Here is the input.
Amino acid sequence: MKNYIFSILAVISLLCCSCQSDDINEIFASGQIWHWSGSYDTSNWKDENKFTPTLTKDEVSQINKNQEVYTIQFQNDGTVTGKGDAITIEGKWSANGDDNSFSIKIKSDRTPTGLDQTFFNEISNARFYRGDSKTIRLFNLNKNHYIQFYPVGFRD
Here is the structure.
């Protein structure tokens, strides 16, 4: 009987934990400005230790030399703005904390090229997210590639 009760409590605990949703406000709607830190391929989107960088050292250096560019800011009204090196972006976003799905529609003030194009395309192709108040990862539809952001000033 004791094992039976323990088993029931374990199942209830698992069910309750799996039903929790992410705090969308903490992740996206805080008004925080996020800085692109890198892009990665992964074989397991929920394992932070399984990734391969997809940017060169020179590209990462270019991204990180100025925290006022390659930024994105989500607002709680569903709008989003951002800056590349030579572009600005704006649009709409939404996220579902229950299944980590993500939708974003952005446009650029000019045709992006180089790293601006990578920045724009990876944000545009995001369909899932993982994150908290310190890191956001926006994943593509297949959950095998992501663009990662830190809060501006986090790495200072």
User: Anything to note?
Assistant: The two ends are 57 Å apart (CA to CA).
